[in-house]
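Run log, item B.
One chain of 421 residues. Sequence copied directly from the ordering sheet:
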Amino acid sequence: MALDQVSRPDPAVLATTGKRMPGALVGLFACASGLSVANVYYAQPLLDQLATDFAISHARVGGVITATQIGSVLALLLIVPLGDQLDRRRLMLAQLAVLIAGLVCVGLTRSPAVMFCAMLAIGLLGTAMTQGLIAYAATACLAQERGRVVGSVQGGVVIGLLLSRLAAGLISDLAGWRWVYLGSSLAMLALGVILWRVLPAQRPRAVTMSYPGLVRSMFSLLMQDRVLQIRGVIALLMFAVLSIFWSALVFLLISPPYGFSHTTIGTFGLVGVVGALAAARAGAWADKGLGQWTSGLSLGLLILAWLALWFTSNSMVWLIVGVVLLDLGAQAIHVTNQSMIFSAHPDSHSRVVGCYMLFYATGSGLGALASTSVYATSGWSGVCLLGAAVSVLALGFWAVTLRQMPDSPASVAGTSAASSH
């Protein structure tokens, strides 16, 4: 993408003059979000190497993922809300500088304690960058294209997440796992130069309040907003399902009879991209009031995915089918969730996405811990049963709360569409 193709458009002009967001700018948001979130997930296919290098047991090494998710929670509570108060461009450039420092620290340290702290910092800043970019894009675009824009940017996030596993495996096999993080620090430095030159300034449109007031307002949203509560719990369960799968997969595939390299294991992330791309229309469906129908269908796909994954020992084809179904369903749910909650809060996107992603981080952290513990005691079959149980719970929760959603136009239309099917 040439820099001269992406000038610095004024977000206020885009949102008030009826002009659609330029495709090049949407693409920049998607690429930057994908690169940022990848840092949080590089560790997943490297857990066995981290366990060996830092003398951590397989049952406890899931704590590395939990550390990044604790960082994510702190980012969502303490940093992401600043996007509704400060110039988002300056805020993200400052976050990027600290993120680069954390990546270098992980790549160089020999101390388990320092590694865990640096992983927490990577989760903190990688999450803050990603969610800040999503909130920026949602605020700068037209209301009638918000689902499409958020869907595109979120597609970049999911693709970055999935390709992070391939990149981590490939670099690890070629140069060692430490260069995964050192190389990423160089990539983020290059991204920082591009964002500094291209990204337009954006002052918040919401009423200015103090920083403590911003943080308190997030807790108010969590306590009072029914859409956020319902869609947040669905997100918690859905991301727990994803974390259960990806955290255990490396231990399955490095063991006999597979004995795959980390590059081969990371390649399964490419399979997930197919599902993520197929789910890109979910945001547009939510714009048309079909969010509830999309949610129910996608949650059903998660259950079918675990059925396919159960038969992995019979054929690797079932693993591929399971990965596609899992990422297709999860991405569709994620995009639909964000479209619904953004529509309800046009002037507080940073705080809303921060609240929503608290559920995401909690689900991911708990899923990783549960997955590695269950795999250590019950193997792949135990992981499949755990993932299927959480998926069924998510579908049941969606069904029970279907009529408890507020009577917003989108939710009413979505409920009607779901009922008619």
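Observations after the first pass:
- The radius of gyration is 20 Å.
- The mean pLDDT is 82.
Flagged for discussion on Thursday.
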